[in-house]
Amino acid sequence: MTTDGDVPPRNSPAHGLTVLIVEDDDDQAFLVREAMSAIGFTSSIVVATARAALEELWAGTCDLVILDLGLPDADGMSILELMRHGDQLGIPVLVVTGDANPERRVRALELGAQDLLVKPFDMVELSARARRALRTHDDLEAASVVARTLARELTVLTETVDEQTSVVIATLLNALEARLPHVHARGLRVGDFVQRLAVAFDLPELAVQLGAAARAHEVGMLTLSDADVAALEAGDPLVGDACERASLLLLGDRDQVTAAAARFRRPAQDFVRHIDRLAARMTSVCHIFDVAAVDHGTFDPERGADALLAEDAVGLDADLIDTFIEECVPALNPHTF
């Protein structure tokens, strides 16, 4: 193994970087090292075997790899495969090979090589491709940083919106409680039922969101008037925005909000007939079950199940009904209602 520490021009994109040259031909390795020094690499490490190359890679000392596939102790492809599954995935690799077989060349690119040259090649071309590999790598790194930052910001915003929406839905249910007894408790129960149904329907990753959507549907189904919303907005201007977000959570389309508001104020059977989204279909099943099962402080799951089977003829989702009755109802504890 040899190293080189010549000081390159500071305006080079390779300044301060180290190139690992994996080449068993001493003359070829010398020419490659000189070419890399000329374009600005601060240092170079030259090794002649796959084992030595892996030791340098695991040490994390290089910023670019120039890899000859024909090594005395192993196929250079094995290095690409190990880099692909290790922490070295982000290091750009420029492959050089005397094998003109197109299948091997394609395979090298598939394994993560940034570029490939077939021997014999011109050192000027090698230098140009090395500079391009560095620029591409830097661009990808910058894009990755931006993407991670945006992902974190989106996560925070999503959590904030979800939290605000949940608070507003609870506020609306509490406001209705004064006019319609037991509304708040029913909204919470229906939301819980929908979450259970989502898990039983193999949708655990959506259970919380569907439960929140169900509670929002309960607000609409219980005929919250525009005057009620206006009174709440007077005390908190953010209520109006959060109400709209709750509607969009259910509908996914701003143009449908007005139609949905009218739909929510129709009789229960008409509501069931027109709702086509999953959250609404689940809410319909759970709402009808709750209305029948919880009566004057008593909980009778059989009564709720009978109501679901009777409503099946007017458009409830039969699969949802069967799943709810078979998997959710037996797990409900009467003492919690």
TrEMBL record:
Keywords: DNA-binding. Transmembrane segments: none annotated. GO terms for biological process: regulation of DNA-templated transcription. It holds the Pfam family Response_reg. One of its GO terms (cellular component) is cytosol. Residues 18-134 form the Response regulatory domain. InterPro entries: CheY-like_superfamily, Sig_transdc_resp-reg_receiver, WalR-like. PROSITE patterns: RESPONSE_REGULATORY (PS50110). GO terms for molecular function: phosphorelay response regulator activity; transcription cis-regulatory region binding. This is Unannotated protein.
